[in-house]
Specification:
The structure is a single chain. The chain has a single domain, classed as Double-stranded beta-helix. It has about 280 residues and is an alpha+beta fold. The two termini are about 30 Å apart. The protein is built from six helices and 17 strands. Strands 1, 2, 3, 4, 5, 6, 7, 15 and 17 form a nine-stranded mixed beta sheet that branches. It has a three-stranded antiparallel beta sheet with strand order 14-8-16. Bound molecules: 2-oxoglutaric acid and fe (ii) ion. The site of 2-oxoglutaric acid has 9 residues, from strand 16. The site of fe (ii) ion has 4 residues, from loops.
Amino acid sequence: MLEIRRMTPQVGAIAEGVDVRTMSEETFDTLYRAWLDCNVLVVRGQSLQLGEFLAYSKRFGRIDPHPSKNTRHPDCPEITLLGVNKFDADGKLNMAIYARGASGWHTDGAYDSVPFKATQLYGVAIPSRGGNTLFASMYAAYDALPEALKLRIAGRMGAYVYGGRRKANELLNPEDRDKQPALHPLVRTHPETGRKGLYFDPGKILRVEGLPEEESLALIEEITGYMVQPQSEYHHQWKKGDIVIWDNRCSYHKAAGDYPPEEDRIHWRVSIKEA
Ligand SMILES: O=C(O)CCC(=O)C(=O)O
Ligand SMILES: [Fe+2]
């Protein structure tokens, strides 16, 4: 029988006792509501083929193949492989693959004019230690801003590109590296919950539009300090067969990136947009 446990007061819920391949519409609705309430939903103990993972993912929205073409699954471009081809031909650890998602707290797809609704990962191979994924709430970040700062950022837009100011875009094909920045309001109202969140990604933002460069950089620095509120974190410790979906409209995440590199840590990953 389906059982859903909240992992922390604000972020993270774990569902057990369900098979995503055969569950009813009603059960899916229950999972979906728990996901909206908790920002991050883990479904434990699944045993999936590629097509089954895709079919379940499509219940949340439309799959959008990731712009990093060389990490797409060779048989299924809608799925990205995390942790595969970690070592270069000369045996050197490829940090862009090993530490993907680990360089800082972020939200996925801010470089796109329509950012991802959700990202979903399926745990295929899990290392013996380390390798957690960390989550935090954009709602809590917004609520924690001083009123004066809320007023300063109201109506302001951030300009984002893949790789951000550091130009960390080695996973993209060279011809895809010069896209125009995408603009998004720093305060975003979630289209389904109606709650306000601090929509922000320090690793992808180039500038806050309409401000002189120094002021923009100072504001980016200041906002970064509010992203992860102490009571709003959930650290997911992976088990093989876990499916984890996070809501990119109201949560930040990062990979811990601390697992033994000689061990496998492999996930299937999809980016999901609003249908
Ligand atoms: O590997 C992880 O734990 C998360 C990586 C990440 O940031 C992503 O897939 O968007
Ligand atoms: Fe990410």
